[in-house]
Structure to design on (285 residues):
């Protein structure tokens, strides 16, 4: 299904009909709504689930480049307006956690409960060069060899490049079934906004401190919903330090936050789906 937004973008989305509890799912980078498939299939039927492809991902359009995560949050607000979703539970995975936090800060009364799964920090997701130095500008990111290698692989349709990268970084413990994995790789190949998102994630900062690139906006203080933070202890993409930044920044602003560690890597949805669902259900009840 798809919905046209008033800003000229069209978002593709998946929906699973269920009960009155609405759960909106926001995927991460090099991904699409397809990565939620196991969760959508296995969550109890009391949830009505919406899972959009963000702008520039999957089957959604990318008519206007994003500059900040505010652009994604605005898209989701317009998406919810079109579908008459007034209040709901919100869950973001990886970079989608940043979009979810930005949305909850911008539109606090619309989020009942917020779940951050293997999420980027409240202070962004830093971009580093091969020497481990933080990239300070969009121009530096655009000229980074690894970013350009990724763009080349997308242009040439090099599935093996993304298969190897995802197997190593996202699925180091358990591998998805072949058919699912092929869908996940296809989603990575479809992404249209690699440089824009890397720059926006590098500069994202809703905390009250500097992240080394930009001062925090302090928008985190606007979040009023309870928050569940879930991290896989074997995560190679999101460090424990980044996760603790989320927890500590939220506690600083008196946000009710629960932090749980799963026996998983960057994708608890594959590595530890049963316990992930248990934690989600306990939190949302």
């Amino acid at each position: 299904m798809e919905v046209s937004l008033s800003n000229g973008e069209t978002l593709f989305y998946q929906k699973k009909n269920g009960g009155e509890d609405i759960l909106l799912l926001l995927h991460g980078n090099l991904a699409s709504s397809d990565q939620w498939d196991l969760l959508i299939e296995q969550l109890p039927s009391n949830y009505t689930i919406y899972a959009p492809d963000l702008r520039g991902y999957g089957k959604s359009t990318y008519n206007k480049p994003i500059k900040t995560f505010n652009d994604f949050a605005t898209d989701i607000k317009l998406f919810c307006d079109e579908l008459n979703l007034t209040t709901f539970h919100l869950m973001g995975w990886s970079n989608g956690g940043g979009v979810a936090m930005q949305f909850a800060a911008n539109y606090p009364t619309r989020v009942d409960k917020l779940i951050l799964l293997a999420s980027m920090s409240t202070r962004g997701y830093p971009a580093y060069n091969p020497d481990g130095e933080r990239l300070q500008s969009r121009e530096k990111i655009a000229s980074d060899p690894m970013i350009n290698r990724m763009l080349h692989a997308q242009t040439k349709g090099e599935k093996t490049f993304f298969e190897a990268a995802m197997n190593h970084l996202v699925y180091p413990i358990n591998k998805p079934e072949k058919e699912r994995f092929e869908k996940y790789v296809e989603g990575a190949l479809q992404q249209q906004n690699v440089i824009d998102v890397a720059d926006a994630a590098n500069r994202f900062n809703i905390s009250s401190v500097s992240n080394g690139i930009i001062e925090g906006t302090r928008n985190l203080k606007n979040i009023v919903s309870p928050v569940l933070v879930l991290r896989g202890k074997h995560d190679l993409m999101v460090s424990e330090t980044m996760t603790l930044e989320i927890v500590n920044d939220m506690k600083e602003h008196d946000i009710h936050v629960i932090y749980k560690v799963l026996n998983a890597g960057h994708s608890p949805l594959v590595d530890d789906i049963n316990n992930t669902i248990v934690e989600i259900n306990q939190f949302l009840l």
The chain has a mean pLDDT of 96. The first helix runs from residue 37 to 42.
